[in-house]
Design goal:
two-stranded parallel ribbon; binds tryptophanyl-5'AMP; 2 domains; globular; mainly alpha; three-stranded parallel β-sheet; Tyrosyl-Transfer RNA Synthetase
Amino acid sequence: MRIVSGIQPTGNLHLGNYLGAIRTWVSMQDDATATGGECLYFLADLHAISMPHVPAELAANTREMVAALVACGIDPERSILFNQAQVPQHAELQWLLNGTARMGWLNRMTQWKDKAGKNREGASVALFTYPVLQAADVLLYQATHVPVGEDQKQHLELGRDIAQKFNNDFASPEAPVFTLPQPFIPPEAARIMSLRDGTAKMSKSDPSDMSRINMTDSADAIMQKIKKAKTDPEPLPSEAAGLEGRPEAKNLVSIYAVMANVTVAAVLSEFGGEGFGKFKPALGELLVEKLAPINRRFTELRQDRAALDAILSKGAEKARALAIPTLEKTYAALGLMRG
Ligand code: TYM
């Protein structure tokens, strides 16, 4: 197994990232260690420049995100942890794949449509070609599995389409250049929703900080955000079917279930019939208890800038070594002379 995934170092790591992706990264790391597989996890800093950004903040956020990932359980001795900018093979492969990706495919991407909005003419070219870089990120390493939240599924399917077309156009069926990667989306936490609107995903780009739990939030902030989370006036149902049509209630119950590592049915058998006045403090306390050790480790790690930089440069060195053979195969398949 070759596991590859990335996260943009913009803003804080939030509960949606953690439950949708990072938790799976950690468990896949543990499985891979046991079975001789390999995990590559990276900070998608090249993706971050597709939107307006402040350079000094990007650099600071990149370091902070390394500290946050290590605090969550990513072990740089067992996983290759790096940032794209130190592995130029990502950008090189993207260019090579630009010849295979189709305008029509990119035009259909919902993230492109959402982020460009009505102002397509003013959006960056990087925002449009963003999914091609994402395809390069995984194809470069012959990834077999890509753990992500539901919102990245469409990008990964596009990556598979690019790989398939490239293999068809430039390789023989016996010797394909790229492995077709499988998305891995945890069903119980595929889409964690905003605390202010159960129909919008929890996101770092939401202007309201009350909409998300950041992994770095204090206990007081967590309790406050859960207390203020939007809900409806009904008590909790006793069965999962009763959560349909109640997106905020469904989201809070799902978060409880995943954090406590129990089923939704088990949560409802405990809290069914109770109002949010009882459920919310229990959820807040559970979150505080589970996130406190991560928070403590993060606070320690983020102070050692040199150690964080060393993790990234060591990770990048290993990533480059793994990337080069596929990149060279790609150049050769396209008839590009490398001397
Ligand atoms: P990003 O930085 O937006 O998010 C990182 C990971 O967190 C997941 N996620 C969520 N999961 C459940 N509920 C939510 N509310 C939620 N919000 C975020 C995302 O699905 C993702 O897995 N384009 C990617 C980064 C990327 C990448 C890649 C991922 C770049 N290259 C190659 C996989 C493979 C992104 O912006 O994720």
